[in-house]
Amino acid sequence: MTQIRDDWFHPLAKDGDEKETVVRPSLSYWKDAWRRLKQNKLAMGGLIFLGFLALMAIFGPIFSPHSVTIQDLPNQNQPPSSTHWFGTDESGRDVFTRTWYGARISLFVGLMAALIDFFIGILYGGIAGYKGGRTDAVMMRIVEVLYGLPYLLVVILLLVVMGPSLTTIIIALTITGWVGMARIVRGQVLQVKNYEFVTASKSFGAKTGRIIRKNLIPNAMGPIIVQMTLTVPSAIFAEAFLSFLGLGIQAPFASWGVMANDALPVIISGDWWRLFFPALFISLTMFAFNVLGDGLQDALDPKMRG
Amino acid sequence: MGRYILKRFLMMLMTIFIIATLTFFLMHAVPGSPLETERTTNETIQANLEKFYKLDQPLYIQYFDYMKSLATFDFGPSIKDPNRTVNELLERGFPISFELGIITIIIAVLSGVLLGILAALRHNKLLDYGAMAFAVIGISIPNFVMATLLIQQLAVTWDIFPPATWKSPMHMVLPVLALATGPMAIIARLTRSSMLEVLTQDYIKMARAKGIKPVRIVFRHALRNAMMPVVTIMGTLLAGILTGTFVIEKIFAIPGMGKYFVDSINNRDYPVIMGTTVFYSAFLIFMLFLVDIVYGILDPRIKLHKKEGDV
To answer: Is A58 at the interface with chain B, CB within 8 A?
Structure first.
């Protein structure tokens, strides 16, 4: 009878153990979305451009020795040169400096409109979707009527009545603008509220406010963020459009829309830079937000997870 | 179907009523009277004028009078230009604006759908990338910038088209182009993505297996389903084109309704602002109503009598 010797037995190689561990680092929903967004070059380009724009809106005027409001009549309508990088306007003001001041106003209008829409939309849509039944039916009927109102006409009407100013523009843009957000939030909440973890939360005795804040909103966030990235450019566009009709920011301040409007009479005489720079930045900003919104839509869509 | 149309119709009247009421009270919330001018007017004249425009009546009576005249399509006189009524302005301006709008929509839908189909058929090829790059640029450039660029290049530098007014088909090219680019780009993107989705479906494979010609598959089998998202956003596009006419008419000096509307805003001519806003809104809301019905006819799968609460 052979003896069972200890040296017959070898400890298993180390790698056997490691097969049990998770190879990939665990990814939360947001990390995963960010990873996918990073692969989308166009969307990242948009994000980088917007970061640059925000920095320039804050610090851009510092680089320029020229004032945004002081007029310099001998130097009116100068083409771009080494002193005036983007040229000057009919009062001799530096277009480069004014462009970054315009960026402040345009971005501010866009971001404020998106934020206000976000809060009202979440509150209204969250309650309608969560309560359901009669509450939902009544609240959505109101939304349907508001949705049918021609948005820009209401905005124009309000601006005529309240007089054009930055605050009025933001109020006018958000007074009907939250409706789209409310619809999206409601749709998302209707979907999410039937999941088991919400039932579990309820059975632990969580209150309505907590369920909406902790369970429903975080899980409905994807489409909401996409909607926000699309609200910003449409608000910037609306502001430019209103300024163009003479209902925007008043002189001496300038948004891109005001600058484009002021440039119209001289464009025919060949002073292209007056229109070119504000128009370029409106277009680039709209472009950046649109590709970023598209990229986020893909990145935040759980179906795209691979 | 009948019940659905009736329900939509009542909703439409409700929305128009709300817009008219809102407009009336907003206009009366404006501080000062529309009759105020820089010149000091004699008090008796002022009183007589107020009496003529019924501004001396209590607000609710003015409101009922206003609603009564709206119901008979009478929008009242212009205050800044007493020889004209708002109805005259609408009669003169609306046909021109309508023409501009209709041509724009036709061009935008036809070329947008065609571009979208081509991009979808050449998916991930050069044509697709080209079409989509064009579409994103088209969406990003505001129409007033587009209009100015077109005038500057095609009218001033190259002198191919007349730069302004609305007389011959040649005059229409630039305004229509400026107004149509944005909607066309949006339609092209939508058509492309929904076409891509439809083309992978089984019934298309089936049609291909049966040996139906590709052109016929695209236009008869796929397009009808792929068009649904386009019809859905038609309402938004119409609203965009309608407000777009304000700036386009201003830039190209086209004597349409948009021009009167912008002028009335700048002159604070309240009856004209009120009249045109209500007219525009009613027109737009009516178009949305038509779009809803067309949607129902195009897609028999949509249940027209939806349950309360679904959107």
So the answer is: no
Distance CA B222, CA B216 (A): 9
Q: Span B206-226, mean pLDDT?
A: 87
Tokens in use for B158?
């190259």
pLDDT, residue B106, reads: 92
CA dist., res. A129 & res. A139, Å (int): 10
Question: If phi over 0 gives left and psi between -120 and 50 gives alpha, with beta otherwise, what is residue A84?
Answer: beta
pLDDT at A279: 82
For range B175-185, the mean pLDDT: 90
> Is the Cβ pair B266, A246 closer than 8 Å?
yes
Among the partner residues A140, A160, A264, nearest to B309 by beta-carbon distance:
A140
State pLDDT tens for residues A104-138.
888 898 899 999 999 999 889 888 888 888 888 88
Mean pLDDT of A219-223: 80
Residues of B in contact with A283 (CB under 8 A): 137, 140-142, 145
Q: Which residues contact A231 (CB under 8 A, 6 or more apart)?
A: A110, A113, A114, A117, A177, A180, A181
Nearest to B265 among A132, A160, A282 (CB): A160
Of B145, B239, B246, the CB nearest to A151: B239
Is residue B112 predicted with pLDDT exceeding 90?
yes
**Mean pLDDT in chain B?**
81
Q: What is the DSSP-derived secondary structure letter of residue B77?
A: B
| Interhelix angle A272-299/A221-244, nearest 10 degrees | 170
Flag if A246 and B265 touch (Cβ within 8 Å).
yes
Q: What is the tens place of the pLDDT at every residue in B267-292?
A: 777 778 888 888 888 888 888 888 87
Single-letter amino acid, residue B211: G
pLDDT at A275 (0 to 100):
77
Q: Does A206 lie at the interface with B, CB-CB under 8 angstroms?
A: no
Q: With an 8 Å Cβ cutoff, are A272 and B152 in contact?
A: yes
Closest residue on chain B to A240 (Cα)? B142
Query: Which of B148, B189, B192 should be substituted to probe chain A, the one whose Cβ sees the most A Cβ atoms within 10 Å?
Result: B148
- Which residues of chain B does A156 touch, with a Cβ-Cβ cutoff of 8 Å? 265, 277
With CB atoms and an 8 Å threshold, state whether A149 touches B140: no
Q: What confidence score (pLDDT) does residue B305 get?
A: 47
CB pairs under 8 A between A and B: 120
Q: Residue B307's pLDDT is what?
A: 44
